[in-house]
Structures
1.
Amino acid sequence: MHAPQIRARARGLPTSAPAAIAWALARLEVPPEHVLDVLQLCLLRINGWASWCAYLGWEARLDNTRDTHLNELLAIRVSWEALLQEDRREAGAACRLWQEWRRTAALTPSSAQTTEALWQRAQEISYQDALLCQLQAPSTLGCAGHIDPASAHLVFCIDVRSERFRRSLEAVAPNVETRGFAGFFGLPIRYTPLGTSASRPQVPGLLAPRWEVTGSAGSLLEDQLIAARRKHALDVQAAWQPFFRLPSGAFSLVETIGLGYFGALLGRHFGSRPTTADSWGLSGADAHRLRPHLCDHGPNMLAQSADLVTGILRAMTLTHGFARLLVLVGHGSQSANNPQSAGLDCGACGGQTGEINARLLASMLNDVSLRAALSARGIEIPASTLAVAALHNTTTDEIRLLDTHAAPASHQADLARLRRQLTEAGHRTRLERAPLLGFPDRSQQPKSLLKRYQMRARDWAQTRPEWGLANNAGFIVAPRSRTRGMNLEGRVFLHDYMWADDPDGAVLELIMTAPMIVAHWINLQYFASTVDPEHFGSGNKVLHNVACGRIGVFEGNTGDLRIGLSRQSVHDGNKSMHTPLRLSVFIEAPRAMIEAVIAKHKTVRQLVDNGWLYLFRLDNALIERLESRNWKACVGESLDGNQSSDSTRALAQAASLPSP
């Protein structure tokens, strides 16, 4: 770089981050009004590492502490720029050139940028019009809020992948009622598997866990024995890890182990059930006996649990009319050799599966003493209602009911019927998804089609195990009756909500400040990874190498950490599988309730006012869009299937609207 004096000059830098930043800004002669812009530019030059440090700061703030990694990284970067500048003839030349560019081209949108923004808006209008037509259809208006009597209530995560399965299940079993709720089921927990110290939060990134959960077989002695056996098994596995990870292991390990490892390879490849981190070091019998157990938090534990569950059921709008089966369906993905697998699991559970949360809440709802406490709070769960946990494998669209071996004989027939309905709904969902995965033959038998999905999930070389949340575009907060029977193509987050049961607007406030924010995060991640993959995507998954075991990936062996989604997550090799649209949010609630949340929360206000998402209000046949703090009536126009005319009309409409 023709800068031989940098090592010597670096020794003279200030030793604290704030002092180093001040020294560098002075050397670069940055005017005070441009300091923030220059510092942000320095961080964007190393966006991956800066993002990791910002994440550490985020976690620290959730724990009411402070992390300085981002400041230190910034000090390193801006000092580096100043050290390079030392060898220039004219001090501050680079900064002045940047200021001149900023005053001219940077602040003046080019005609190409203006045209792209216009087409972006037209594309969003086209999608919104089609959805408006569906929501304004007479068949969606005036429906009952729930099915009476329902044979089963199934509460799914609002994840867009559940929309297809819910629609299929309701077609197979019209007497089943499905609901949408955040996939962590409202439990603010941190989970530590029995016999390990690997603690992890099972909550969205917005929240900090408050309660500790571990596994238990029901007795202290049995838990101690299982923990000892697991610790021994994990210690043996850990002893082998250096042989697997050292470069020389690629040559010596196969020669050493030989056929002894052949059985394990076959098990990984042909096993029908995915192996999870929670089962590591456990025998099948031990894993079968363990259940999530809430650690004791003092003498008021029952009252605290009852208050928590009361809030959860009210947020679900499920406080009466309980069916014989109340099924809490968490979800998780299945893939092999995939460093980005957490991005396919439940975002509401912190990138984990929702199994722990579903099983814990089901056990709490079945607890007799807790039901008595709920009754005192106005929620009466009949003795005939059984809460059951389930896990939706989003790669294969199989739903497995959990812990049913302990279910009473009185409910075995109900569970058997539900299993048959879930099996049929899974087949319908797989048929619908088959063309997206390159399985064009829709006449395949259920078993053969399921086998193809399972083989894809176990394939170590498969870079596209499932499309995850690709093509997400909408978020609907309304009773299921508003959308039941509508084909939303797996593109919409569905959160059940009845404003009449929320007189103080507390539930709506929770939805707009948590699930809606998380849905926006997901939507923006897919949007940015599609429109600017160089800066906001993680590149080619085939070239990924995991950095430090957990913090991110390199594309190759070095460089900046890559953030966002890989190309294979949004592109099938021939065409894009994600249409980049900003999130369209539809809420069925009075204006005053929605406006109160916007006025109270700055983050929500920024998302709406600055055009990061679109906000619509549903009121029977009337649909309004919030634009510049004013509500304007919307009318969806019937689409005739002519893509050219649709695009032309949408483009004309976009050109007549103010830029969001």
2.
Amino acid sequence: MTAHPASKATPSGPRLSRRGFLAGTGAAAGLFTFGFSFPLATPVAAQGAAPEVNAWVVIQPDETVIIRIARIEMGQGSLTGLAQLVAEELDCDWDKVRFELVNPAENARRGNVWNTQSTGGSRAIRGSQDYVRRGGAAARAVLLEAAAKGWGVPTGECTVAKGVITHTPTKRTTTYGAVAGTAGAITPPADVRLKDPAAWTIAGQPVKRLDTKDKLDGSLVYGIDYRMPGMLVAVPKACPVHGGTLKSFDAAAVAGMPGVKHVLKVDDETVAVVADTFWRAKTALDALPITWDEGPNAKVSSETIAAMVREGLTAETPFVGNAIGDAKGTLAGARRVIEADYGFPYQNHAPMEVLAATVRWTPERCEVWGPTQVPEAALAAVSAAAGLPASACDIQVMRIGGSFGRRLQTDYLTMATRIARQVPGTPVKMMWTREEDMLQGRFHPITQCRLRASLDAKGEVEALHMRISGQSIAIYAIPGLMTAKGDPLVFQGLTPGGEMALGYTIPNLLIDHAMRNPHIRPGAWRGVNLNQNAIYLECFIDELAETAGQDPLAFRRTLMRNHPKHLAVLEAAAKGIGWETPPAKGRARGIAQVMGFGSYVAAAAEVSVADGQLKIHRIVAATDPGHVVNPQQVDAQVSGSFVYGLSAMLYGECTVKDGRIEQENFDTYNVMRLDEMPAVEVITLPSGGFWGGVGEPTIAVAAPAVLNAVFAATGKRVRQLPLKNVDLNVS
């Protein structure tokens, strides 16, 4: 059971009985703030209750252990995983652990004591593990010292297990709850020793999640559900053609409709209706006469975008992500060149919870209740939109009903604040319709890829040129990431080293990018560019194996002889699917591997195709993330990632007509159903020595493993997604 301390509220203010928030204000922190204060700051009273032991730990007299969570929970389980790491070093009783969410204003006020709160790129645990563990260890140290001082004995004579402290020579005992009041005043040690993961008893175990009960009983309030006294609801509509503007609207035409309070211009692209309920605001917005200036992008279509991107396949480009030897020269002199073009469409995040946030603005203060993946950047965006210093703004961070990268952007919080600023003193919940959420997304970027390779006399790859053409997320959303080599996000899984390293040794290699940016706005979509890069490379590797007359696994083994960690997960997936034994009649298998977000991953799939219909029977996934904090959560995340990756492969496609996205709801943007989901077996191979991600890496291997199996079953190469557009009938 999860208990959340209630936040303080005035009689007219919000009541958040299921969620503990820290009070306070402060300056905004940026999206990519990596500097931090060591998390052992001067303790303060927590919510007027027990004094904190340090920034991470509050222990109440009844032995309840409250662990502060700064990263954002979106269903991925990082909230529980981070609490496990703190609790492990603290040596407390897991059954008594509860959590409290940190808000960005308090973090800023206390000098970023909780470090960055930004959550994306599967970094919540791997990017926090060291300092949160140190926070737990430091809390343990001062609690032991407090007990020792109370007994007048050396601290070294004291031990602790499950929050019970024992003086070994005399067998006297006390508890964390009994000494927590004095422990917070003790200066923590300058350094603490962290446990060897081999000795973990809480971390590394499939303990129960802390954030489940309120989801199951329906009491959890997401941003879309939030209510407070006197609240109005705003429903916005922006120009459906990205880059277009709002020309005019006739507010008088809907002013007399039931419940309508305001019809507002939000910005140059957007109008909103404010009413006493969502339905009344939406009904009035649907009836509102609006004139858009759609601009030159109104003539753009999927076909014109495809032509723009296709031109980049042969153009000169300065952006090189990986270069070894002389790929172009070797290919020019090769006896035979194998060539293939692949393509990946626009995709929508389409989370169940549409974008929403509640804002109360006054000339002195701006308060926000809502979900975000980037609290520091969100606070800065709210401050700018509110026209107030960050110290006069506050965001109560709420748990997220799905995001997949969409809430890395702060556009919806800016919009909500601008609306509330025009209705001062009144809390306004801005809520997008599903259609608006789909039309105004930040879409997975569209790309095409041309791969050209040659084989030597032994059938090994002697040269490979991989040309990617398409959009850059960085140049649109994070321009500070751009370098002379272009957008590093484009080359995920294809770099010579780092957390997205290529797992093959090829003597002559060139991977480059021709940037082509249509007007559709791109964004980080769960797994980002690793997804299509894995499809491009892993399916083409299968094509090369076929040309060489070799088994796909054996062919890869040769290329991966200098990459043992890549090869280890590939071998594990192959063994799990039974690669060395023939599949049942009518079934076929495919395999793929990649490194992404610091983890080595592979998948092997078994499928059948009958009368043109694909059935995915099994997928075996192998992952080496270095360390596993909660094996149950790893299993859940890998299985869930396959739902996402396979949905994209089967159905995910956003098309453009007259400058706008055509898919406005789930009737035209399909996702996998339960009866389509294969059996999934997850093999974890934590080799230690590094920390990798879990939520995103395995998305990338789902599609290529299945596509390679489809070829084995049908003899057809699928190079353009989604599969719903492909005829799989065998002629």
